[in-house]
Amino acid sequence: MTTTALKEPVRETSPGAARGPRRRTGRIRRLSLPYLLLLPALLLELLVHLVPMAIGVVMSFKELTQFYIRDWGTAPWSGLDNYRVSVDFDAPVGKALLQSFGVTVGFTLLSVGLCWLIGTAAAVCMQDAFRGRGLLRALFLVPYALPVYAAVITWVFMFQHDNGLVNHVLHDQLHLTDKPSFWLIGDNSFYALLTVSVWKGWPFAFLIVTAGLQNIPRELYEAAALDGAGMWQQIRRITLPSLRPVNQVLVLVLFLWTFNDFNTPYVLFGKAAPEAADLISVHIYQSSFVTWNFGTGSAMSVLLLLFLLVVTGGYLLLTSRGRRAADA
Amino acid sequence: MRNSPMAPPRSFLWTRRVFLTLLAGFVLTPVYVMVSSSLKPLADVTGRFRWLPSELTVRPYIDIWSTVPLAKYFVNSLIVAGAATVCSVVIAVFAAYAVSRYDFPGKRVFTVTVLSTQMLPGILFLLPLFLSYVNIGNLTGIALFGSRGGLILTYLTFSLPFSIWMLIGYFDSVPRDLDEAALVDGCGPLGALFRIVVPAAVPGIVAVAVYAFMTAWGEVLFASVMTNDTTRTLAVGLQGYSTLYDVYWNQIMAASLVVSVPVVAGFLLMQRYLVAGLTAGAVK
Amino acid sequence: MRSIRAAAVGAVTLSLALAATACGGGSSTGGGSDDSPRTLTYWASNQGASVAMDKKVLQPELDKFEKQTGIKVELEVVPWSDLLNRILTATTSGQGPDVLNIGNTWSASLQATGALLPWDEQNFAKIGGRDRFAETALGSTGVPGKDPAAVPLYSMAYALYYNKKIFADAGISKPPATWDELIADGKKIKAAGASVLGAEGANLSENIHHVFVFAKQHGADFFTADGKPDFTSPKVVEAVKSYVDLMAEHEVIPAGDAEYAQNQSVSDFAKGKQAMLLWQSAAANLKSQGMSEDAYGIAPVPVISGKPGSGTQVNSAVMGINIAVFKNTDNLDGATKFVKFMTSDAEQKILNTAYSSIPPVTSAQDDPAFGTPATAVLKNTLATSAAALPQVPSESQFETTVGTAVKELFADAAAGRAVTTDSVRAKLEKAQQQMPAA
């Protein structure tokens, strides 16, 4: 979410700076004011995010197993061992990490794509007023508003092998499968996870795109209509291009949220997720908390962070260059 | 409302009708399951799924309060999420105001740093954060680990980056002339913030508050490590229904519903502001 | 403005302190003290049907203790899903309870963290001596040769619970004594329209307890004598396969059980849907679900052939709960007193009766309450044919990795995929390589 890069054009000088000499308060006070305003946010970020992150990096170089957790300062340094284990893709730990990474990437791409597609389609469909639109919009936002736990546990209930709604519909009523399927274990768990993730995530895309649509000037449509452009063409030629800056942020945010999602798979599958739906954050959780190897878990987290940094940076670079080219 | 001067073609209307109906079905099925199952007797939810309850009962809604101390968890969640929201909003307002109205060295570093924390996988700093809280407790006697305070602190920083980002956009859209005028009239910078900018930015602030509240209300991972019996929040406490020797799905559904109602209601009431806030702020 | 500045100063101090300690790391390493002699915190494991029920059982006893000693005990009943994590965080932070229950299989793992008070001769003397406890129970209190990390509190064993009516309907006169008999009976039971045997395929600990026993019956061990994981020996593979085959090949365990992890199989049995259940001390449980004691019988868990006994005739793990003292306690004396109280003859009788477990304290075992036919099976199993799970520091990781492997094999079986010797070996190999090297 390094979104400052997206907020162009660069802001003009602010009133405080421009009006400098005329201010009654002293120069020092004026200069320190923005910092004072930022201080609480900065300190909290430091306390909760940055310092722990640094500790996490330190931990990744330690042999932090059950023998040392009681006093982790005494844990021996292990150099790059934790990293070596994590990326040795011939050995099972590395292989499992790689597999989990692959699953996560595939899952994230599908989930973000579907969320975006459904959210945009719904927002465009509901751009015009029609009877019941307000109600429908409220309904659509319910999955997003529901607490994760409550929403996912309902899906767990629906995905039960013996007593769930999904098998009842697919097997008992529609006879699509010749025997009830398992959704929470085995290979189908991937689709179960994807369904829940899309169900929970698309309303956010819907919300953002709806907001974005309201910023499209009416004149654009009028001009297009005068040119004889039909509904579909208007959507293609005006709506979608105008949404580009919004989409740029939206996709990034959805990507980060989905990629790092822990709550959904954790509530859906518990502590040991099936291989087909072994998302990276649960995998790391299992590698550290359940098997008590916090050093390796930290090393994996650091690798994950590096990956996210590269992807986000690359994405921002690419999209902003693309935008500049488009603007030119 | 919209825009297009000519009536949409039939093909579009039909596509729209079919698509929205299907989507509504997808969205509502779990909601229906939640509501209907919460009104079923236990036998209905432990046997084959049925669309309609064999009989309607409100028993689950009575039992949920005694099976686990739900009321206590509810109060904990309210305190934690409420306090985290208030603090997060206030702090975000200050920070966004500074970034929106002042130029100062380090501004870019600040925004990039704060916003990039949104990128951190929670799992990376779960254990370190927990260790930090413990150490602070040992050194200063301020109990952060296991206390509501620690959880409030954690949650408010979760929503902070998004809130700051959104409010910067929103404050930028409030005309600068307004607070300049206030400054000329003799308000201090904080006076200008609270008398001019904040009132003009109410939709954005409401949007941010709703987001902060939802983040804190639904979080599972940190709550499961950082709370104990007395400070447990709903998201963790609800798991109590399935650790018993039977899974009381009707009670789980009833409890989930009870837990969801405040946030969903709040969210839907505020949704107009949310869209307005996003329109004026973040997505501009 | 001034208040902001003050807050800022406070916050800076705080974060500096944080940064400083972050580098130092770790928690206070004190060996316990008697700083607060009037109170104790006690984490109990969830033994009864619910947390609320446990509180009902334990609170009167804690009140008794308070009356005797003047020490007030704060009780928290921790659900199983949380317990190990809570102990782990308590260990890391040094902020935990004074006294706690642990699953006896975790003893060696927790012993390795050094967070629990070792029970040397001197400490044992304070609670009446080591020889008050049954030798089998003491076998699950830590690495052999080291001072135990905990003291046995409740003992349990697996037994075969069978539904008398379903057996009668299917024309079966006595419970199966061998797996072959069980499989043969299964056919009759299915013909009579019930499902055969319950299992918790997605519950890692349950999986471990069963494959451990199957391994014993095949004459194999998951760990070598010097404590190294050895999951892929042909016999272990065969043992794990034969357990999963109860679902995959013989179909006595219904496919649906592959996703059970929350004791749904107990509930199936209690409802009369299922003829048999392998469970530890299930009586209190079944009762709380409304199954009358006359409706079911209890028999020893089947073996491959012959009669249950030691060696390859082992038919249960030594299950149970140990009570431990957290080393960082600030009421060492009170904690020891509390352990003494909980392991006293009188309390042992009351608590083990309430939880339908067997007292590990030998003098309490003679009470008539533990002489019923049902309890006799459990007592006998514990005495003659139960073996302790491996007492190695990596036991808890073993439970996770191998338990997950079995869960995945069950998932394969449920999905109709073949479970072969190769697929079993592959899963176990992966499990083994995820074990900590050491």
TrEMBL record, chain A:
Major location (coarse): membrane
Stretches the record annotates as Disordered: 1-23
Cellular compartment(s): Cell membrane
A Pfam family: BPD_transp_1
Transmembrane spans: 33-55, 101-126, 138-158, 190-213, 241-259, 298-318
Membrane topology: Multi-pass membrane protein
Keywords attached to this entry: Cell membrane, Membrane, Transmembrane, Transmembrane helix, Transport
Protein name as catalogued: Sugar ABC transporter permease
Organism: Streptomyces bangladeshensis
Upper classification of the organism: Bacteria, Bacillati, Actinomycetota, Actinomycetes, Kitasatosporales
TrEMBL record, chain C:
Keyword Signal: yes
Signal peptide (from-to): 1-22
Glycoprotein is among the record's keywords: no
Keyword annotations of the record: Signal
Domain of life per record: Bacteria
Pfam families (UniProt xref): SBP_bac_1
Protein name: Sugar ABC transporter substrate-binding protein
Organism annotation: Streptomyces tricolor
